[in-house]
Each structure stands twice: as structure tokens, then as C-alpha cells.
Specification:
686 residues; six-stranded mixed beta sheet; five-stranded mixed beta sheet; 15 strands; globular
Length: 686
Amino acid sequence: MSKQNSPRNPSFPDILTRPLTKSRFKTAHECPNKLYYEARKEEYGNDKNENPFLRNLARGGFQVGALAKLYFPGGVEIETLDYQEALRQTDELLKRDNVIIYEGAFRYQNLFVRADIVEKVDNRIHLYEVKSKAYHPEKTNFWQARKEDHLASAWAPYLYDVAFQHHVIQNSYSNLVVVPYLLLPNQEALTTVDGLNQRFKLVQRNGRDSVVYDKSLTQKELGEKILIAIQVEKEVFNIQAGTANGGDAPDWPKGYTFESWLNYLADQHLNQKKIDAPLSSTCKACQFRIEKDEHPGKKSGFEECWTKALALSQEELNRRIPLFEIWNLQSQDLIDAGIYFVDQITEDDLVSGADKKRKEKGEQGPGLSASDRRVLQWQKLVSSDKTAFFDKEGFQKELSTFTYPLHMIDFETSMVAIPFNKGRRAFEDVAFQFSHHVIHKDGKVVHQGQWICQERGKFPNFDFVRALKKELEKDSGTVFRYASHENTILCHIRKQLLEVTKSEVPDKDELIAWIQTIAKPTGGEKNPWKPNREMVDLLELVKSYFWHPRMRGSNSIKQVLPAILEASSFLAEKYGKPIYGSEAGIPSLNYKQKQWFELDENRKPKDPYQLLDKVFKDLDRNELDRLYGDEELADGGAAMMAYAKMQFSEMTEEEYQELTQCLLRYCELDTLAMVMLLEGWIHWKG
């Protein structure tokens, strides 16, 4: 039956050596060059810390995988890490007419996969790839709405993963029919039992990550299924046929089929050869685009790609600025046109048609438009102007509309794949923490309050809103957030409150009414409301009135904070002393006599976030946020993983309290950063 140990291609060794695995194929699909750089990790710096334990903490991948096995009881797990032994055990099990295998091993030529779950029924193999990505039966579509013959970009990586596995397994066992599925958390399904999440604990033992759970749990104890299996034959076959992008642009070079491209990748990986991939806008976020001082002695894969592709010396590349340093620039079209650097751009490349029309009609609002901001940044970069831009007059007009005291709030949230409680859905937002700073009219700053849910397994959202309401209802001062996250979370909790009864939450109407005073409706609300104390988004003020070279192409609060510290002499003087958390200085709930303004060896202000203790050993907040990998929520990635570890992993009470204090300090700095930003602007001396 099996052909697993008899590869057809004589260029590949009989004994499996350096195979192209699922994870390596995923890397190569992102960019083939990454396959080479990742394999030579001793030579090349990598900003993407591949820590599967922490990554799965935030995403819930381990728990979902364990739950999936319980939905397929009676299976046999292949536990050995040895390639050949895993292949032998899998082959032996597949001689049965009917069998379920967890982590089954399959080989075709020099391609190797371990499948999450395979179910053999007579002559069919049902391949289940388990992912902790939310699926809604009525709303999710694997294909683009406007281009129905193009895969949706959000789902393409998962579907390519399944297509790769299907290719390996089908060719390994050509006498069987392989039917591919994605097994996903169903956002429409309600959990029908309490404490389901707590049945799956993450542990690290003997260098391996695993989930501890009772394998004898019955379907009654698990409740109604919250995972859904979606057959993806159509998607897989289109990928393998090269028609998943409309048929005219497969995701591999011309002249290759899916199979020959995989074999080429496997051959290059086996022989440690680099594949020269074309430059693209994705180079901006490449993990091999490193800061050399953060990776001493390591090479930059990004530099190697760009110097070779553009025939530049290292010195020439260092003198020029890649075009994606410009904020919110649609850079792929320019790269396709042969434009790679800021000094090649013209002003017309930066101005959108919509902004041009608004300006012609006199409809542009206050401050910089998105196009204005790009032009401003471009002008400063090409002229080597290192000064900050601040529209003091425009900001002062905004400031005159604010009501003191000014309130800064920041939320930390999570999205849990397996819900805590009965009646909850997969990936509902869970708000577990907030911080609250106040600026009074006389300039006094106070860390006014904070809240964190410390009870494991509890759904915290309604207590969260009660605590926040108590903090903010004492006056009518303006409330500030940074970006849309806080508004989105409050609207989500409002929907959750609408779904519960008064017997469950007696004060639901009061909480809903209060949320509607500060949060504006998100898109699609059937019964929109108008808040009378709508939160002000500091991010929008940054976009309209402030830019500093240290921000580069980002408006993240983590980039803006060191930028405003560098630009403001007021902040340098005030926070250059250990006044934070002192009796005569600024009251703090978590710090004592902290000095936030410090200079590095280049006489530049240090990033305050780098002055904090690390959330996890050897990983600072920036590394954790990158590890989370979601651009929209990246600034909260570290907190999500810390909270997940507190909820789902084994730890002592001492470790639990230490991590709690770490979370409180980080969240406090988030709202203090907002304070510093406003203070810097209010006291701007130019």
C-alpha cells in the first residue's frame, strides 16, 4: 500500500534529510528567500521569535487542537519525533480499514507533513487541518467578494497549508481518496457547558509544549460542538491547478506546476541554496529586516535581497530610504513600476484621488489629510530634515473643545478560542484590564485608577464595564483613547449585554446606557445612537497634527512615545527626574520614584517600554507584540499572551502575582504615554 519510503525523484535521499515540512512550506510561500535565511539562523538575524508555546497562548492553538481530538475519540497519536519511525507507525495504522490518527506522518519525495487528524474510512482519508481561526457559517467566505475566482487573502495561507498536506498524502497513498477539511472554531455556536476552557492546560515539560487534559471526557461533558469542519476540496484543487488567483497569476514562477514548484523548493532547501524572489511591499514587514544593533554579529536578509536585486552596494543601500517608510503608501504598484526608494517618488505618487477632489471642493477638514501627511514626510526625508512637525495652532483649536479633567484610558483584551463560560462564543472579545490617568486643568497628573480580572475562568466583561463606569462617571471631562480598539470593545460588550437577561445581569440597562454616552456605534448597527461624551481618538490627532522622524512610517503609540520625548524639552525636564510615583510628584498605583526620561549612548531618549522588566524571560514587549503577528492588535500582543498564560497554563501563585504586577505596570505606561503626548503638545515651545 505505502509508497512513503520509496521517493520517486532520485535527486532526493532515501532517508529523509532536511525535508520541506508544513512550516517550511508556509515560510517559503510568504517568500522563498525566507526559507534560506531561516535555515541559516546562526548567520541571519530574525525579528520573528518562533516560540510556539507563547504564540499558541494568545491564539489558543494548543487547546483547540486538543479539543479537536476529543471530537474524534479513539484515535492513535504518533508521538515519536523520529521521521522514519513516525512514517512506519502511520503506515502500519493505515493498513486497517478504519482508523483515526493524530499527528500522522506522511512523506512524498522530500516533502514531509504531520497531519493534525486523519480519519481513514475504507478507501477514503479525511484530512482535518485544525486552526484556531474564527469561522462564521453565514459570514465567512474563502473567496473574495469582488473577485470570486480569487482566494480571500485572510484565508489563503491556511488553504495553501491544506493543499500542501493534501498533495503529500494523496501522492503517498494514490490508491486512497484524500478529502481535505479545515476544522475551525464556529463563531455561531454557543458553548453549552461551563469551564470548558479550563479543562485544557498548557504545560512545558522536557523541552516540549503540550496540553494536559482528560482524554476520557465524554461528549456530554464537552457539550455541543463548537468546532466546525469545512470541506475545502474546491479551494485545494484550484490551488494545485494554479487557478486560485483567477488562473492568470499562480503564486509561483511561470513555467512551474504546483508539484514542480514544491520539488524545486524542497531541492533548494535540501542543498541550502537561496531562491531569488522578486522584491515586494511585503519586504517592509520581513522578519529578516533587522536593526543591526539588536542582532550583533548577524546578517540582514533584507539587505542581501535588496542589494542583489537592485545591483547596489551595501553603502548605496544604506544611503537610501525604502519607499515603504512613507506612511500608508500603496507601495506595491510603485515597486511594480520600478520605484523602490523615497528619492524616486514624486508628489503625484503620494496624493490620492479622493484627497485631491476634497481639496478642490474645499471639503478638507482640519489638520493634515492622509495625502498631506505623506507629502510632508516625503519632503522631510528627501531633504534630510530631522525636525519634528507640529501644527500647534490646529491642535490648540482642538484643545479648546476639550473639557477638564482629561481622562486617558487603555484596555487590554483577549479573544479566547474556547470560551470560559456557558452561553459564550469562540473569539468573543474579553476585556480583562484597564488603566486610567487624569490630567487636571492646573497640570496635575494622577494615575487615577486601574482594574484587572484575577479570577481564572471568569468572564470579566460586565465587571470591567462596571469598574470603568465608576472611574469615569464622577465628572464630564473628555475621555481619550488611542486608536479604535477601546471603542470597538465597548460596542462589543454592549452587544453581549443585549443578549443576556436582567435576571443574569440586573444592571444591564444602566451599563448599556452608560456605554452609549462615550462609545460611538460601529458599522452595521441596526439602532445607532449618538454619544454625548464621545471619546477622542489621540491617534487621529497624531495623524492630523504631529510627525517626527523617529516615528518613521508608523503611528503606533510605542513609536510616538519616544518621538515626543525627543521633541519636547518640557517632557525631558519633567520626566528626567524620579518624580513618577513619588509623594511630591505624580501619584502612581504601581511605580515608586520612576524616572522615564533617560538618554542612550547616542544622546537620544530611550524607549520607556524598554525600561520595564520583561513580561516573559528573554522577550521584551516589542518581541512579544511581533510574535502575536496581528498588525491591528500588535500593541496588545504581549498582554494577551501574559493573560493567556495566567488563565491556561501551569504556574505557581508567586508566578501568577508577578505576572499580574507586570501587566499592571505595562498598562499604566500605556495611559502615561497618552498623558506625555498631550503634555508635550500643550507645552510645545517649537
